């Protein structure tokens, strides 16, 4: 049994013990969420976050940046609002609330399009990125991770360079729309982190994607902690 599996089993046992405690049973829903969120988040978030963060992924940054407890719940509510707005204004985007952040995926069928072997942002992509930039401005206390991905077609080195160009194109466009560069971190993964089967045309199309992670910045974290203390 590997170490990660042992840790996950330990986490499940710990959560089971917590749910059986009288103090937890007699608490309200918010209090239970804070207690269990802290316990589960500290263990599972650490396990998953460390593994994924090792690849500098947007999802890893979202999972690994957990505050936990009641303060984490405060941050989560703000992220809920932001995620809902992105979903309503950019229907093609795949928006997932994860932990205390938001994961956003645009593949070539759903929001940010690139011609084959190109990194130029076309008119339709600009429309969606304009909407996204507007939402980011409404929530200034967040940082944004931008990732570029490709399918497995072509040379590894070429794909890594292409994914970097595409991620940079998205980052630079968001900056041109008024998003502070200090909020943005850009990564390229080439073909190394596929989400779908690269042996099918449909899978390759979905793997040619730009992925974004939205996480609380230090100000949002500190404000949430202060709010809890009041």
Automatic annotation (TrEMBL):
<feature type="domain" description="OmpA-like">
    <location>
        <begin position="101"/>
        <end position="218"/>
    </location>
</feature>
<dbReference type="InterPro" id="IPR050330">
    <property type="entry name" value="Bact_OuterMem_StrucFunc"/>
</dbReference>
<protein>
    <submittedName>
        <fullName>Membrane protein</fullName>
    </submittedName>
</protein>
<dbReference type="InterPro" id="IPR039567">
    <property type="entry name" value="Gly-zipper"/>
</dbReference>
<dbReference type="Pfam" id="PF00691">
    <property type="entry name" value="OmpA"/>
</dbReference>
<dbReference type="InterPro" id="IPR006664">
    <property type="entry name" value="OMP_bac"/>
</dbReference>
<dbReference type="Pfam" id="PF13488">
    <property type="entry name" value="Gly-zipper_Omp"/>
</dbReference>
<dbReference type="GO" id="GO:0009279">
    <property type="term" value="C:cell outer membrane"/>
</dbReference>
<keyword id="KW-0998">Cell outer membrane</keyword>
<dbReference type="InterPro" id="IPR036737">
    <property type="entry name" value="OmpA-like_sf"/>
</dbReference>
<keyword id="KW-0472">Membrane</keyword>
<dbReference type="InterPro" id="IPR006665">
    <property type="entry name" value="OmpA-like"/>
</dbReference>
């Amino acid at each position: 049994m590997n170490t990660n599996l042992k840790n996950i089993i330990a986490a499940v046992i710990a959560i089971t013990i917590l749910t059986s405690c009288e103090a937890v049973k007699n608490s309200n829903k918010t209090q239970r969420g804070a207690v269990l969120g802290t316990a589960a988040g500290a263990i599972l978030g650490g396990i998953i976050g460390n593994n994924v963060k090792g690849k500098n992924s947007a999802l890893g940054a979202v999972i690994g940046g957990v505050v936990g407890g009641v303060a984490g719940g405060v941050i989560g509510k703000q992220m809920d609002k932001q995620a809902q707005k992105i979903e309503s204004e950019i229907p093609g985007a795949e928006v997932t609330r994860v932990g205390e952040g938001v994961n956003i995926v645009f593949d070539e069928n759903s929001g940010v399009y690139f011609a084959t072997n190109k990194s130029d942002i076309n008119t339709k992509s600009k429309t969606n990125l304009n909407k996204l930039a507007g939402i980011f401005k409404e929530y200034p206390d967040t940082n944004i991770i931008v990732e570029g991905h490709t399918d497995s077609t072509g040379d590894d080195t070429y794909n890594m360079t292409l994914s970097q160009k595409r991620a940079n194109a998205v980052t630079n466009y968001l900056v041109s729309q008024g998003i502070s560069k200090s909020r943005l971190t850009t990564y390229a993964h080439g073909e190394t982190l596929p989400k779908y089967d690269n042996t099918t045309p449909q899978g390759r199309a979905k793997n040619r994607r730009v992925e974004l992670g939205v996480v609380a910045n230090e100000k949002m974290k500190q404000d949430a902690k202060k709010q809890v203390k009041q």
